[in-house]
User: Fold these one by one.
Assistant:
Number 1:
Amino acid sequence: MYSRKPFYLIVAALFLVGLALMLHRYFVYEVPWLPGEKRQIWSIEAKVEFEANGKPVKASLAIPGSQPGFTLMNESAASPGYGLSFIEANGTSRAEWSIRNASGHQELYYKVDMMLDPFAKGPLSTQIPAMMQADVAEPYATAMDQVLSLAEERSSDGITLTRELLKELNNRGQNAELLAQYQSPGPLLVELLHRANVPARLLKGLQLEDGRRRQPLINIVQVYNGEQYEIFNPVTGDQGRQEQLLLWEYHSAPVLDLVGGSNSRVTFTMLEQEQPVNVALAKKFDQPHWINVSLYNLPLEEQALFKGILLIPIGVLVVVFLRIIVGIKTSGTFMPVLIAMAFIQTSLLTGLVGFLIIVGTGLILRSYLSHLNLLLVARISAVIIMVIGMIGFFSIVAYQLGLTEGMKITFFPMIILAWTIERMSILWEEEGPKEVVKQGGGSLMVAVVAFLAMNSELVRHLTFNFLGLQLIVMAAVLLLGNYTGYRLTELKRFKPLVDEQSSGQKND
């Protein structure tokens, strides 16, 4: 006897692989299960201002990239008359403007869109910075030593030392007041840590707040403890990444490097907005990756095409279920799926009316062709030409009457309609109108159910964003194909037996 184990193993493998791909898309690439979700986008504009000295000018601005918590979506720059290049060097990204001659007040703009993304990763440097201990004059050197001595007694490593130093500096004791006059909190904390032989560097961050204009960057200190690091806000004492904090420069490089100008400054304007998840993900995944099997990597024209194609397996699953399990008869195996695809283009009501008009008129004309005793090829060809003529005629009539929806019947598959008319005509001649109504009505009912399934916003979202769903649909189709029991419509044959058994039990 033939073993069914390989079959069930294949079905199980298809299901598990499809499910794994869907879960991978959800957990790794954060594609949501439900449509309609949105992603938070921060649009940030950096404005560079300076006075040019009438000489060649080169301005280099540090720019952010994707980093933990944020994914870079778009970036652009406005610089009339300037040459512009985006440069990658030593892990840093910079926008560099240049011009042969400029004088007077100059304004350059850089704009970036960052998506709030808990799954994002980025090039935050893990390389331990070099430590430089500067010569500090008295009485500041003594104050530093005293603050360090108190903090070191209550700490065990570089991270805990930083916490204790921030407590000491924020307590506003005599030493803290003196050191506040010596240096601002960020550079002061880095200098104290270097004095204690703890690796640390100064970063520049932007505190995001919707609608704020002309905001400066704030100092952030990155402290290392072996290969691990932690970041601190030296003003507030907060440890760790804050949700609304974007690191703008994280390699201890100058934010703005200017040659040929003076009195420079950089200010930031930010605006919060939301984008539909499909738009945000399309921008995020525009760079293909072998493990990121995504249709967002394709051009928009191909994406639109696949949005329709990927719905067909859902319609096929509906047809298989209704034919094998329910037992509904259709005219043609998968004709209802193609009709359902046409319904998606035309709308359900317009599609039903158009289908009935074309098929009804086609059956009348086909009945005349049956008396001409034509060969099959010629007869089908004539029916195709008639279908095209009817679609064109009804489109013109609908347009003249102002019924613009009626013009959409051109989306019907003409060859399929011609074969449907041919089959129904032969069925009429061989088995009578009752069978025609049964199969034609069954085809329409299956087409409507397939349309409702395929036109669902949830189904559209899942089929386009989770390609693993196609494998699960394949597994379901294979399982349904293995069904050999009774159809639901055939159970009515057993109703007399049930009634007879029930009446027998009553007589007993």
Number 2:
Amino acid sequence: MALSLPAIMRTTAARLSALYLLLFALCAVLLVFYMTSLSARMLTAQTQETINDEVLGLARAYQRGGLPVLVRVVEARSRQPGANLYLIADANGQILTGNVQSLEPGVIETEGWTTEPFSYQRFGEGELDRLRSGDQAAPSTGTSGAQSEGEKGHNAIALVLRLPNQMIMLVGRDLGEPERFRAVIKRSLMLALGMMGLGGLLIWFFVGRAALKRIDSVSDASRRIMGGDLGGRLPVTGAGDEFDRLSENLNTMLARIAMLNEGLKQVSDNIAHDLKTPLTRLRNRAEATLAGKHKTTDYRQALEGTIAESDQLIKTFNAILMISRLEAGYSSETAGPVDLAATVSDVVELYEPVAEEAGVVLEATVPEAVTINGNRELIGQALSNIVDNAIKYSTGAAESPKVRVTLERAGGEVKLSVSDNGHGIPDDADRARATERFVRLEKSRSQPGSGLGLSLAKAIMTFHNGRLDLLPANPGLSVVMSFPSRETH
């Protein structure tokens, strides 16, 4: 997707790249000026030290033999190759000896170090320039006409001294080598600055644009999801970077939202279909009671039936609310250490009269103590629902109906299973559907109930980070509640 420059600069990646590039450029420019000035100071100090050493040597020569020895030494050193400058002039500034042919005006008029680098020409360079240009005029040996020539010459710094006989001695050093060194440093730093800028642009082009494309793909997927495509997911490239981790987390969140929306849709549909029958029955009973003349006992029976039917509806709504709260991960119930053995014993003791009345043998195989992290009331409610279903659906299915509750450890889990020898649920698809809300299989239509018992048990197991499995018991059905052990929970 092509973007204009203003649109690109509104992106975070482009702004960060521009800020980093600006920061690098400022640092590089400051580094260029700092290194250039530092090298200039170091070279100037080194040059001045070299000039001082030369002056000391010439001073010792002057002390040994006076002006004649000094002139001979200056002439000898002037003929040696190197960057040092030597000049002896009279009191009027006329050059007498040395390797300097001309100077800028005013250089030797002030004693001491020259304040600024000055231009000069070495001995013989002016004559060579005139030969090259065809000018055969006589050379000047003074300093008066050297300004135009000196401007085309070299640069140097020097120490100007007044001798006792008012003669002038200049000892200096050419700055060509330091200037070349400074130029090399400046070019190197400028090249480094250019490479940094080019590198920043390349990094933005290859890395920043890739990040922008990733962000654009995430934005496109988000717009599709907001447009109603709840099955859409954010792209994951498999690189394992921050974008992939963010996309994976958001996809997990979207899957959770989709599951909750599907559950909400199912609840709405189930309420519309499955709760319509008891409400219609409740209304018909009240209408039939009011239709004719009845005795007081008839009205009382009708009201008692209405209350019983209302209580059943309230239980159904409470179960739906509890399932929704548990599936959403929000519940006011607190978790703590729970002794499953004691919970199983309490539930079995509670349902023993019910089982005995139905002609079902209820047995339990429970160790001394098995402790997990959970909520005792929720676990007891789930186990009660499962035991109640096992007693109801094993009645009349065998000559000696039996329900067995077993508690055991298996690896890193604690398994609580309720098995019966009834008809069971032979079909795998029916066993998967049995835990959905308001689902009642054909063989269970004759039994009272709302189809929420196993749904609530499944929601409770999800709340406890466990699972609910429906397995064939051959014959019958085995409902297994698998809890993580207390150490791994």
Number 3:
Amino acid sequence: MSRRRASDPVRVLAPRAEAGRISRRALLGGFAVIGTASLLGCGSRSMASTASPDGTLEGRLNVYSWGDYESPDNIRAFREANDVTVQVDAFASNEEMIAKIGASRGTSGYDVLVPSGQFVPMMVANDLLSKLDHSLLPNLANIEPAFTDQPWDPGNAYTVPKAWGTTGFAYDRTKVDGRPRSWQDFLDVAAGQASGSVSLLDDPWEVTSIYFGAKGIDPNTTDPADLDAAEAYLTEELAPHVRNFNSAPTQSVIQNELALLQMYNGDARLAFGESDDPDRWRFVYPTPTANLWVDTWALARGAQHVDSAHAFIDFMLDPEVAIGEVDWNGYPTGVAGQRALAEEWELDMLDLIFPPDKVVARLTPAELTDAQDRLTSILEQVQAKAG
């Protein structure tokens, strides 16, 4: 059960259908990566300057995040404790956010952004983020080491964790015998018992990583031979057995439509929780590896409410506040001791919120590499040949 409290909604400037938290893990699904020049706008105009903190909270804070991703109770608590008006606007993809921030050249008006980790290097390279002042973030000490100092932001110079999760698969125990545990098992079941009843995520990295994981290849590989092999296998051997591509396939679980579904752990929890027969479903954290995605809090280039921005981020890293975020969106934040608090709050299906430590230890953070266009092309070919 959940202790979520009734609350007034936080105002977000995007429809839920476009920016709902259920579907927010679809990072690149279904369309080609836009070139950096197009994504960030053209021209050589200088970037606006970020204000310097002076120890006094400003009366306003502008946050640009995924839709419905922050607990309204926490937003209200921060506002009331600090007399700061918080405006939360929503985007539906990292690309949309980056394009808007890049075109504004630091004059977007936003203070706090929520990019996914693999997009951070691109944003830093194009001067879209400002460095955080760690002296204003004492609660950074609450973050578990596993979620700090990521390859895409060494030393957490620009970001701190907001939420994290991983990818696996769910299967219907009434349709699939045995206990599949690996990506190779996933491929075998897809071509066998679940043929024609398979759903894949609508995301190039995630789909190709099924093959790479099954064959023991780094899912961030850029080796042309690896990419050629993935394309051949996925288009010829897997695609004919796939029914659809959906980055939020919760309804397919609820309606018992399919037998085998690639899913994010939080979406699986949501689906199982709404199913009339959750015991027929099992979620697998597959070996040998899967995506460790981390969404982050970041300070926008050109931010003018920097004291309030740091205070807000630090507030969200407080354990009692952070557990409210878990209760709201179903994903952990990386704050230490969170599972014990989740038990105290009586949150359900904790193993789908918190992957076991041995699982986390073998996960691989997705990277935005030079192979991304090729990965997108492979996904498009798999979709074209899907049964």
Number 4:
Amino acid sequence: MSTEIKAPVFPESVAEGTVATWHKQPGEACSRDELIVDIETDKVVLEVVAPADGVIEEILKGEGDTCESGEVIGKFKEGAAGESKPAESKPEAKAEAPKEEAPAATSGDAILSPAARKLAEENNVDPASVKGTGKDGRVTKEDVQNFVDSSKSSGGAAAKPAAMPEVNVAQGDRPEKRVPMTRLRASIAKRLVDAQQTAAMLTTFNEVNMAPIMELRKQYQDSFVKRHGIKLGFMSFFTKAATEALKRFPAVNASIDGNDMVYHGYQDIGVAVSTDRGLVVPVLRDSDAMGLADIEKKIVEYGTKAKEGKLAIEDMTGGTFTITNGGIFGSLISTPILNPPQTAILGMHKIQERPMAVNGKVEILPMMYLALSYDHRMIDGKEAVQFLVAIKEMLEDPARILLDV
């Protein structure tokens, strides 16, 4: 029995998606609940699984095609895995596929799936050098990725020879590669430009002595890991300090909706996470009710889901304040851009030892620059500075976080 393969029902904030990767091709058998296709939206990648044991009968929306919520993108034939043979008995369809794909590949002997071909082109990989594990020796996306990974581990020697034939330019010319933006990258670009064009954005800076936090971590790290099964990081301290500061300065925890200022009576803090696809901001709900261990576990969970592309829309919506850490990449100081419709964002940076004057003497201390970008339409400079000073004081004397002083 044939059934329709439909795109998932998108949330209200998502208008359409793009077919990213077909993990199964027509005629290929698949098991119930096995992943068959990924749909990329401007926020997350949604997975579509097989409704039952059977085969992919027909693909109506190819990779790169746009689809709407609930739109039919393919057809599925239910039945045992052995029923994939009838799909092979179509000589016309079988003969056409290699003819269409062979010219696009660098080798006429290699048969690549569209996703595999794209990945091979991006990494300058000769398909003929990749061993195909798919049906009829087809080179899959996973085959190309494994080849790229193994090449990197061996110094990249295997991937380099294919680079010369791929680039067909005259001597002295400089090659270029044009790649369309992914939906996530396009969405990020649009939001950042909107934030700069619509908000009266301003940034205030301060610096914090990280020695007290570092000493605290060193003293209790082993006990913390033994008790909670996770390491004590810096982000949990910053999250708790920001939570307490947001209680004292409600305007920083607010958002603008048209001509209205919305003050939130709760603290949902977004933590910016970098992935291969771009920057995403999952949200720690009700951070006031979370302990340091809860925050660390949730951040690790979000980080893992982000790398695997499994963050849900619900994980990334509704935050009231954002923290971003450029320090993990070595950034010494920067001006973070607002995450609309929030009115402020806190930027953490690299910890660097610097000579500081302490009680008339010079001491070498581990210092970090802090940056608070804020919407001046909503927040006055005085509030922004006081908010950042409150965070600085709590981090330099962690007992203040517990005592709320």
